[in-house]
Amino acid sequence: MSPISRCVDNDELARLVRQYGLSQPVTVTRPTLPSLSEFAASLEGVWSRCWLTNDGEVHRELEAKLAAHLGVEHISLFCNGTIALLVALQALEIDGGEVITTPFTFPATAHVLHWNRVRPVFCDIEDKTFNIDASKIEALIGPETRAILGVHVYGNPCKVETIRDIAARHGLKVIYDAAHAFGVRLRGRSLLVHGDMSMLSFHATKVFSTIEGGAVVSPSEELRRRVNMLKNFGIANEESIIGPGLNGKMNEVQAAFGLLQLRTVEREIANRRQIAESYRRHLAEIPGVSMMQDLPDAEHNYGYFPVLIDTDRYGLDRDTVYTLLKRFNISTRKYFHPLVSHAPCYAELPSAQPDLLPVAERAAREVLCLPIYGTLDPNVPQVVARILREVHAHVA
Ligand code: T4K
Q: Mutate which of 177, 203, 333 to test ligand 1's pocket (most atoms within 8 Å of Cβ)?
């Protein structure tokens, strides 16, 4: 017997699926695309110049426009966010020792440390923002600690001032994985100005996309030049190789896609905000279902809509709700389960032990990201809420 049939009567479930099941599958996210003809037209210059990559004209235009849009001065575009973060660490000369980071993130965050020969030291998270718990960082600092790598999870700003002060006291660098934080502002300023460097992801599943892509935001032109050198094989020109670089470049086709996305990204975020508000209205007061709230000093981008399912109060566990919603043609994702600290390459580390990470362990057990994107049918939040409410009433 499946976990669902143990809790919800089969006939009743069939009735609910008939009543609320969606005719078309809905995914957790979906890129909002320009029209194909618009995209083709945007590539005419690329074709006529026959210049496809290596700091082309469109790449330069996107870099300038993104800097202005995001309110930052020094930005370098990349082929994806993972390579961008890898290079950011190299640019800051963090290639060994330990870095304090969060286990509640996409695996790329910790893997990039691994690829830089850095041992991750996992720190537990806050239960309101899902971000690294700044009050627990200092106890993890040791002689080998080189930096703090925070993640603005779901675009929620980390406690940037507290982290800055801890880093200053101990002579550490601060890097932010801002993969989720495109356009997020904190107290009226770009979140990306905090720390020694920030990385963005422009993957197809993000609020702003270049299909695959990413960026590093640097605090100075000198560091930006270093990042650019490292993402271009470490070569300065035909005559000189400065350092051990790799190939992290964004190409002209990605950049052209990004320029079109930039025209519509504000609308995308506004549409997502409406979806988030609708979820908040409709999901209110379902026992055992809790939601993240906007922070009063932040402007969010609504890239994700996570809820937590408390098994005892809701009556079903998160995994059963995940499977149940699939029956209604609604796909959700368990971002971020399993914790990256459970991966075999990290699981033996002292800081990866589950009893040291109780908040992260619970979040990974309970979190479910609901569908949110600009073109989502606006009725979906209400449908999801009705299903969750009726199923709860049934199992209660
Ligand atoms: N740090 C953090 C905190 C991150 O979240 C990420 C990436 C990174 C670093 C690394 O940045 P990148 O190197 O990726 O730039 C997705 C993304 O692949 C990944 O970029 C993202 N985070 C992560 C949170 O989500 P999956 O495995 O969930 O993707 P996938 O293929 O299952 O897609 C999810 C849903 O999106 C699909 O069910 C349908 C929809 N979708 C997806 C694609 C690719 C579309 O509608 N169209 C598409 O083209 O990882």
A: 203
**Residues 33, 40: Cα–Cα separation, whole Å:** 12
The string of DSSP letters for 50-88 reads T--SSS-HHHHHHHHHHHHHHT-SEEEEES-HHHHHHHH
Tens of pLDDT, residues 47-65: 999 999 999 999 999 999 9
CA triplet 333, 334, 340: central angle to 5 degrees? 130
Domain boundaries, the chain: 3-30+262-395, 36-260
Q: How far is CA 193 from CA 80, 198, 219, 357, 381, in A?
A: 20, 8, 7, 29, 34
Name the residue at shortest CA distance from atom 17 of ligand 1.
205
Strand partners, 176: 150, 198
Name the residue of 82, 106, 191 to mutate for ligand 1: max ligand atoms within 8 A of Cβ: 106
pTM above 0.90, yes or no: yes
Return the sign of the alpha-carbon dihedral for residues 292, 271, 212, 85: negative
Fold annotation for 3-30+262-395: Aspartate Aminotransferase, domain 1 (3.90.1150)
96 token code pair: 């060994």
- The topology under which CATH files domain 36-260 is Aspartate Aminotransferase; domain 2 (3.40.640)
Of ligand 1's atoms, which has the minimum distance to the CA of residue 83? 13
Please count the helices (runs of H) and the strands (runs of E) in the chain.
14, 15
Per-residue pLDDT tens over the stretch 341-361:
999 999 999 999 999 999 999
Residues having CB closer than 6 A to ligand 1 are 27-31, 80-82, 105-106, 108-109, 151, 177, 179-180, 201, 203-205, 214, 331, 333, 335
Distance 177 CA to ligand 1 centre (A): 15
Q: How far apart are CA 318 and CA 196, in angstroms?
A: 37
Nearest residue (CA) to ligand 1, atom 4: 106
Residue 202 CA to ligand 1 centre (angstroms): 10
